Amino acid sequence: MANIREVAKRAGVSVATVSRVLNNSDLVSEETRERVLKAIKELNYHPNLLGRNLRRLKTKMVLALMPNVSNPFYARVVKGIEDVAHKNGYNVMLCNTDSDPEREKAYLDLLKNKLADGVILMASVMGKDELTLLAKNYPVVQCCEYIEGAGASYVSIDNFSAAYKAVKHLINLGLRRIALITCKNDFISTRQRETGYRKALEDANIEFDENLIKYGDYSFKSGMRAARQLLSLEEKPTAIFAISDIMAIGAIKALKEEGFKVPEDVAVVGFDDISFASMYDPALTTVSQPKYDLGCIAMEVLLKHIEGELEDPQRIFLEHELVIRESTVKY
Amino acid sequence: MANIREVAKRAGVSVATVSRVLNNSDLVSEETRERVLKAIKELNYHPNLLGRNLRRLKTKMVLALMPNVSNPFYARVVKGIEDVAHKNGYNVMLCNTDSDPEREKAYLDLLKNKLADGVILMASVMGKDELTLLAKNYPVVQCCEYIEGAGASYVSIDNFSAAYKAVKHLINLGLRRIALITCKNDFISTRQRETGYRKALEDANIEFDENLIKYGDYSFKSGMRAARQLLSLEEKPTAIFAISDIMAIGAIKALKEEGFKVPEDVAVVGFDDISFASMYDPALTTVSQPKYDLGCIAMEVLLKHIEGELEDPQRIFLEHELVIRESTVKY
DNA sequence: GCCTCCTATGTAACAGATTACATAATATTT
DNA sequence: AAATATTATGTAATCTGTTACATAGGAGGC
């Protein structure tokens, strides 16, 4: 495989000149430039970026860590990240962590070992102290899920008011026995959505009922299970708010299997507006996050951190929207 | 940021010794090793892999190119790729090409520029000549979709017999007016699934009807559209075989909206067995590919190419399975 | 006691690019 | 015409870690 020296020799110039041509320096005469380009073509030369990156101590590569790349929610976020990255000459390395701290660490080593210039964390399983240390030494941006006060920037939505709005919508439909399907974890989205649910009930003078809270793990099956538990209650719910679309869809499937009609017997609201939400039958009412923009802005903030234009951590919240579909309102 | 020289100085040894410790060479005395490890810890030293990779001309990184990382079909394949890669000390860089030749080229430049040691192509949009050239110069494995005769290894399934089996299943249910929802593209899976469909009809002495073939683009909406077109026919189909689950699900949604029952009025079979296939209502009968194994084996073959243990291109076919669910058989 | 072998360690070349600095050639100013 | 500025190019240091080769010191054999 040809290297810069061979190109230089063939073009009858020094390696410096070849490098200048490669980097579009205007300190090269037109005639020389053409000779060099010809040599590059003839040798089918591709510069070895390991050499370049080593010299520059930059890779123009960023990591995007998430539990699962194929999670339909993150799909759009990733698209935003990539579009902004590419526009700025950066590549994105997508990383499945499977929510496994070991895997997450392994990927962060790529950052520490200088194979990437920065990282975007989505639903990281890192602790606050670890994150603080990481953010002090490397460019880091949290996206969607975040830890407050670790000195790391984040871009997210106001999960509290989004959940509040979703439950308010059910209340406005005249429903009062509203169940919650949530998860047992420490994500800020979980905590805030639960709080929003409670506050909406409280503001409507609906008494909070412990029995109406069931737990899942974001999976379809766990949504079905939670719904069945709710149906086994003496006083069954007339509405369900699930903190993720997949669990909401699982709940609907279980409801239908048990002979309940959605939305007539039980109305269901999800969260995230993944693409399947609108495909399902009935189409799912859900909270739509500006997924693409979340990705774009997270990447923009990361770029600023990388290029040193930003010292202080940013806290950015984007707007959300309640999308009303068949699972709560019969047309 | 500390480098190997500072570690060496602090430990009172040469850089070579530090390097030996880093690479677990057994040519280091226990006492020295401990001194070096102590210095590494104290300086919070992380070796710069750009230096190492440059010297070794290896990155232990492979690319996995696919139209869309979030496509639920590829999700499992990717998992297989990653598991095998990690087990062998490699990292995987997932790349969304959006089926855009430019994007694909940009990612392949990472290979040519030595930032990756090899590539796995899923549903590449490259032409045969390009692929031939690529495979001649770099380790390449095609996974799922492939081009025959380009001198590049591939791992896939027998799409012809899978489609044949799917349609045969419909015929065995006594259905004879069987429609096909396919795509207008040149993928081998598309061509072979169409051929399998035709052969199954032919073997059952069912006359082929041009009107029963409709085209989509793998999207949910295109599946709905195709189903509506089929329903507008004089002689409506009693069964639909779609070459992708998403289009099959779209078709079911449209059928239900038009008041048709699935499977009573129209039976539907998909292809791929994405996770949503079993979540849908009705759960979708579909062809299951060994997605995880496809990924594993593709990666194993790629590793052999990278490590030079394999010169000749491999052609590997794995087993598939027809999974019968509610969309064709009422329980 | 001398020679050989082995182990532990060090020195320096090397991977492939970029770039500060030096220099030569040419153009411009005075 | 001399002095200065500008442009084009080259030389060599540099980025960081790996590794071939050299070397020192000790063990063991004769």
Question: Main traits of this protein?
Answer:
repressor (chains A, B), alpha/beta, 434 Repressor (Amino-terminal Domain), transcription cis-regulatory region binding (chains A, B), 331 residues, LacI family transcriptional regulator (chains A, B), elongated, six-stranded parallel beta sheet, homodimer, Lambda_DNA-bd_dom_sf (chains A, B), Peripla_BP_I (chains A, B), 3 domains, 17% strand
Largest interface: A-B, 45 and 46 residues
- Helix and strand pattern of chain A: HHHHEHEHEHEEHEHEHEHEHEHEE
Average pLDDT value of chain A? 96
Major β-sheet strand ordering of chain A: 2-1-3-4-5-11
Computed structural class of chain A: alpha/beta
The helix count of chain A comes to 13
Oligomer: homodimer
Structural domain tally of chain A: 3
Rg of chain A, please?
A: 26 Å
Shape of chain A: elongated
CATH topology of the largest domain in chain A: Rossmann fold
The CATH class of the largest domain in chain A, by name, is: Alpha Beta
Query: What percent of the residues of chain A sit in helical stretches (DSSP H or I)?
Result: 40-55%
Distance between the termini of chain A: 66 Å
Residue fraction in strands of chain A: 15-25%
The number of E-state strands of chain A comes to 12
| CATH homolog superfamily of the largest domain in chain A | Response regulator
Q: What would you say the CATH architecture of the largest domain in chain A is? A: 3-Layer(aba) Sandwich
Largest sheet of chain A: 6 strands, parallel
Q: Can you tell me the residue ranges of chain A where pLDDT is under 50 for at least 5 consecutive residues?
A: none
Keywords (chains A, B): DNA-binding, Repressor, Transcription, Transcription regulation
Protein name (chains A, B): LacI family transcriptional regulator
InterPro entries (chains A, B): HTH_LacI (IPR000843), Lambda_DNA-bd_dom_sf (IPR010982), Peripla_BP/Lac1_sug-bd_dom (IPR001761), Peripla_BP_I (IPR028082)
Pfam families (chains A, B): LacI, Peripla_BP_1
